[in-house]
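Two quick folds needed for the group meeting slides. Do the first one here.
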Amino acid sequence: MQTARELKVLRNSVAALRSDGSTIALVPTMGALHEGHLTLVRQARTAADHVVASIFVNPRQFGEGEDLDAYPRQLQRDSELLEAEGVALLWAPLPNEVYPDGYATNISVAGVSEGLCGGDRPGHFDGVATVVCKLFNQVQPDMAFFGEKDWQQLAVIRRMARDLDLTRPHVEAIHGVPIVREEDGLAMSSRNAYLSAEQRQQAAALPRAMRDAIATLAAGGEAQAALDELRRALLRGGFDSVDYAEMRDADSLVPLNQDNGNARLFAAARIGGTRLIDNMAVA
């Protein structure tokens, strides 16, 4: 596996991979890799001739008081994992390669970025859209793979790619990969490493409470009552606070008062200093 830290090296390496007409899949990450990330790589390998993975802790998607400095950075370990999965090229730029002195451009995606994590983390999705647009321009992949745990992020990226003509016509170039979960149902996340042993046990209340809410809805229960009980269940289960518990259309992310056949349940809650998110299809 090659590793590029400078943009010139990246572009030369990508050109070499493409020299025989090969296709390239991009898997963007912020590192601290787990089985969820590696699942993205495996899916990408089935769809393209070569996989390019990126590791970049993007400062522009962290708000004031968030965990930018504490976010785990373990490039050597992550590199070894990616190489073992057959990644051809790792793009691991330093911050000034992505945001050089004088950088002044920002991408903002309306609609799907509003509410949910967009409401709780102002500017977060501007940072996501900006860095992903840059990654697409830097690597110029044929396709890219993202996890569905960050469902709103995936919606933002798809909207941006369509609006800015970043994907080829008639090609589903941005692939969402289903959430990879621990045995107790908790969605895999780099932030799970922040949890103490006790908090990790309590965190399983998140997927459990969401499944209970979905069961209530499937039995004909009233949506608001199910969401209210979801919030209470999280607090009973050991979470300190609940940022949101909502039902929205899976595509448009418009809030829903009842299942429209395409509904998804979204939740975010905090335990200790860690914020966990999850989402599940209602039907």
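Then this one, please, same format:
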Amino acid sequence: MSIRPILIHPDPRLKKKCSPIEGITSEMKKLSEDMLETMYDAPGVGLAAPQIGITQRLIVLDCEKEDAATPKPIAMFNPEVIWESEALNVYEEGCLSIPEQYAEVERPAEVGVRWMDVEGEIREAQFDGLWATCVQHEIDHLDGILFIDYLRPLKRQMITRKMQKLKREMTR
């Protein structure tokens, strides 16, 4: 397994709609393992393939944040929300591609998701709490949507300028 570099916004690759994955190959399994290792190293609770420059529909997540909790890593190939609650939840979101920036985003409180697992099996599950927020956030990445796209234009521009400055400082 290897840790991959995470793209920082603004990067045109983060705004692209990702292609479906045709089947689970050994390369796809390795990619999901690398993404989990990258996510844990960052540290974060979710990571989408476009965040490491790969425009394919793959996300990984593990929202078990307590130190004593057993990790529950999930790799989702071609995930899609198939149901969402009418009830909404507001959560302060952040993103590994937008480091050190957080904002409240309103999303459905619960969602049903269908995906293909690393063995190629179709799975469905219902998520709530942080898991629901995270899975929606990561699926958004696959459609070129960032959490800041839910914010008012002024706030979004302010965060984008901070990221441009951060990228300039990183290249020095």
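Slide caption for protein two: DSSP finds three helices and seven strands in the chain.
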